[in-house]
Amino acid sequence: MFRLRRRLAVGLLACVAVLFTARFLIRAPDERYGTVIAIDLGTANSRVAVMKNGKMEILANDQGSLATSSYVAFTKEGRVGDSAKNQAAANPINTVFGVKRLIGRKFDQADVQADIERFPFTVVSKDNNPIIQVETHKGKQQFTPEEILAMLLTGMKEIAEGHIGSKVTHAVITVTANFNDGQRRATKKAGTIAGLKILRMIDEPIAAGMAYNLNMDAMDNERYIVVYDLGNTFDLSLLSIDGGFVEILSTISDPHLGGEEFDQRIVNYFVDLYNSENNVDISKDLHTIGKLKREVERAKNILSSQTSTHIEIGSFFEGKDFSATLTRAQLEELSMNLFQQTITYIDQVLQEAGMKKSRVDDVVLIGGASRIPRVQSLVEEYFDGKKVKDLTRDGALVIGAGEHAGIMSDGHGTVHPVLVNSSPLTLGIETAGGVMATLVPRHSSMPTRKSRIFSTTADNQGAVVIKVFEGERSMTKGNTLLGEFELAGILLASRGVPEIEVSFELIRGNTLRVFAVEKGTGKQESITIRKGRLSEEEVDSRVVDAAKFADEDKSSRERIDCNNLRGFSLSLKSLDGTGDSNCHDEL
């Protein structure tokens, strides 16, 4: 096998780009679109907004609420939204929620399986795709996640049409920053089923950044903000905002940390208590658990403004009533390790961006669970007393997305932003000893082009094989091969003499181009890799593995470096001349 030399790098090397995205300007308004609506499609709740008279307005549903439950119930009448959620305890197997956790995913993925275990409704596999199965008056029926999501989108569309009095055909939708291509395509398909053309999917932290910008006076200097989004999932992002220029510098997501998990901790506490006091087991009774979950969620929300609340459920189980008190202190005790985990994530995001917390100008809170007082105090303590900006009640995400919708429909948005997303992971190639050499660092803005110079490991070596890997491990054995190609016709010379320039180019359309040029002869080869974004699970898995195997990888690299120093090798130099001449590669 042909191997390349590399300059020894310090720290963790990662090897994939996940979000191949690019700078872009909001397009000019197009009268053919009519009124473009903005939809914040949340795991638990959704919102819809339109631009009216130059001002963004969040629209109320038929029950007067600005937030609509992301629930679909299969009854004779068919229900979507709050009415679907309200009957969930009585009809658990036919009430679908949390569909964002399934869309664009594969049935056998570990976190999908974990979600299925907790859903009261049935999810089956068809060609390894999750399919929701319900019982209706027509018998068993199956629906794809896209079809369920389309029902939710139709509900939001109808809310908008009821307010503006005309048909709506175009929308801007918020999505989780780590949504991969499959999830985004599936979301777009759901829009098509609902009769909506999705003009753009806005990453949630970008939408939050835009909402923040709208609440601030004109800013002359660049500002750094942390967006702390604790809803039914947890998303954390560090943004740079400079006028209308918004850039994600670093982001992390944990789909199983949030309000739903807090609720489950409380439910488990009361289930254990009730079972012990009554010598029964209610844990498998879906109707009983459904009633308890509904009241626990209500109680948790009350505890954001009160220190205690009472839970009363009539005919709870086998004709007996349920009565209990829940205090804020109990809530905090049951979920404190989860609260603290969010703080650990803040540390991680700042470290990845190479930023000290003292440089953060503002911390923006969104998501219902971020209203928990202890959560807010922990965040403020981490930032040495800096007061957080609570945008949870302002519908920040739909307002931010609405700015784009307003510009697209009639040009009435208040700002014309430039958006810059970044790659959560990095790209690299395999070098001597199976060590990763990074080309595009994690969270690099797109599009981008990066180059490094490598050399041969043997005398008169006429060819090298360039292997492009993805993963979070510093050794290729723990990573995934994206592609490879051979560069032949290299200048025959002593090892370390030929100079091979390897360049990575990320462009829009999820395309990675890799070029290799031997400078002595001008010989050149390249490969184009068209690859979908990785799933959140895959990204998280690589991050976890990198931490888990960090010591093992470090030992392997030290052994390889030691061997390199004992042998003859040429120190690599970066194109900017920062190479360390004391570092050598394995032969």
TrEMBL record:
Superkingdom is: Eukaryota
User: What sections of the sequence does the record tag as coiled-coil?
Assistant: none
Give the InterPro entries listed for this entry: ATPase_NBD, Heat_shock_70_CS, HSP70_peptide-bd_sf, Hsp_70_fam
Q: Which UniProt keywords apply?
A: ATP-binding, Nucleotide-binding
Q: Which SUPFAM superfamilies match?
A: Actin-like ATPase domain, Heat shock protein 70kD (HSP70), peptide-binding domain
**Which molecular function terms from Gene Ontology are attached?**
ATP binding; ATP-dependent protein folding chaperone
Family of this protein: Belongs to the heat shock protein 70 family.
Tell me which PANTHER family the record gives: HEAT SHOCK PROTEIN 70KDA (PTHR19375)
Can you say what this protein is called?
Uncharacterized protein
